[in-house]
Amino acid sequence: xxxxxxxxxxxxxxxxxxxxxxxxxxxxxHDCWQPLFKRLREESPVHFQAESPAGPFWSIxxxxxxxxxxKNTEIFSSEPSIAIVDPPPERRSRMFIAMDQPEHDxxxxxxxxxxxxxxxxxFEALIRKRTGAALDALPEGETFDWVELVSRNLTxxxxxxxxxxxxxxxxxxxxxxxxVTSDERMTAGQGLKQEDRLxxxxxxxxxxxxxxxxxxxxxxESFDLIRLLQRDENTANMVDDPMNYIGNLILLIVGGNDxxxxxxxxxxxxxxxxxxxxxxxxxxxxxxPSMVSEIIRFQTPLSHMRRTVTRDTxxxxxxxxxxxxxxLWYCSANRDESVIPEPETxxxxxxxxxxxxxxxxxxxxxxxxxxxxxQLRIVWEEALKRFSDIRMVEPPTRLCHNFVRGFSRLPVxxxxx
Amino acid sequence: xxxxxxxxxxxxEHEVDADxxxxxxxxxxxxxxxxxxADCGGGAVCGTCHCFIEESAGPLxxxxxxxxxxxxxxxxxxxNSRLSCQLQVSDSMGDMTIKLPEFQM
Lengths: 417, 105
Known about the structure:
The structure holds 2 protein chains of 2 kinds.
Chain A lengths: L24 H5 L4 H10 L2 E4 L7 E4 L2 H9 L4 E2 L25 H9 L5 H20 L7 E2 H18 L7 H11 L12 H22 L9 H7 L10 H14 L2 H16 L1 H9 L4 H12 L4 E6 L3 E3 L2 E3 L4 E5 H4 L35 H18 E6 L4 E2 L8 E3 L1 E6 L1
Parallel strand pairs in A: 2-8
Antiparallel strand pairs in A: 1-2, 3-5, 4-12, 5-8, 6-7, 9-12, 10-11
Helix pairs in contact in A: 5-6, 5-15, 6-11, 8-10, 11-12, 11-13, 11-15, 13-15
Chain B lengths: L2 E5 L5 E5 L6 H7 L19 E7 L8 H8 L8 E3 L12 E4 L6
Parallel strand pairs in B: 1-5
Antiparallel strand pairs in B: 1-2, 3-4, 3-5
């Protein structure tokens, strides 16, 4: 469903490709990005754009090409950044998603246990209880914002649990997540200025440095992310390298927050847009796990990841130079009709439903994917127990952003059984 | 036709005749053996078809760098860890016993 007021964006089908900005965040805000990406997949799947707010870049839009590039980590590096924009070199925080092997592996291994399914089982009952409480508290017979009261609320709680973060100030986690991804160069100028972002990053560092020192060396039995870093010999001194510590914190805060939040909202929209699928899952809740994968595909909460070419190379007949930015458009891969039949249809039990691009591929594949799936599964299991209907009463408001695909507002009404 | 015995983490055994030309992952999927997710469909790019080779009558192909990269990130990696999508069934490979991990991620 498009937002009512579409701006005057160049026609994606008749404008010469060289005159179109593939990264224009307004196409995502107004949910009219699909035709341009379909055209790119057909006409120019490895497409060079000479100018954009983030400088020149290549767009990769086919599913199989993205897999190919993600496997080739030697030529397609994750350093210095995995988003279309570059941080200024003197303020470059270092996060493992934006590192190559072997350093990436060492840091990822240290925090991975927290999201291992074995550990998640411990969390499941707690998440279910908190989810149920949040859903029970929703107003009936009046319109409310699903983003605020459900998606944001629940993902903030989860994140606070993972960090063992002080409960009364947990809202800071989602505020921070919003702020650090709000770069003016990815949001058509709507985001924060670099100086303001830096100020927030420094606040995050201060709070988490405090938490580190409170916890270091204690004997508390906990699998929170801070203690996991402290107790792994390879990352035990990370606090002494603030740019590395803050980088990984930002990664975990954003990775554990925006993505799941926006998929939680997206699900409501898709079930309203495809009411026959809504009816099917209401009648048969065993479809929920498969529906969760389909929601993640359809939402694709991060539209892209970026790689940087390490040495001159040829890819699909195109000459790429060392230093070139290569944008892997996951949103396009997830609508690639050569891999996903009828990709524009939301189909909760499609075959190969787990085989989507939203988590990426290779060594950087989303670390928290099982946690995200579990959170979404629990939300839908608990919601469908309680509500006979979750009705969208107005079109959602989407983010004007070319990296985070999501919603700032989704007005709904619920009906209880 | 080689016989493959899959043993789930809880000890449940599944013995199946493996079709030549398929990967071990595809065999597990075909016979609905639980414990293999195979999210990426066989490209060695997700790591969710991890298994442990307990016994193998014939030699297995070496682990290539891509498979090694993915296995290297598994918290439960062992000496005999493999991605089952990278092992093709052939008539010469002989029977195998394969243990499945507690979880895939």
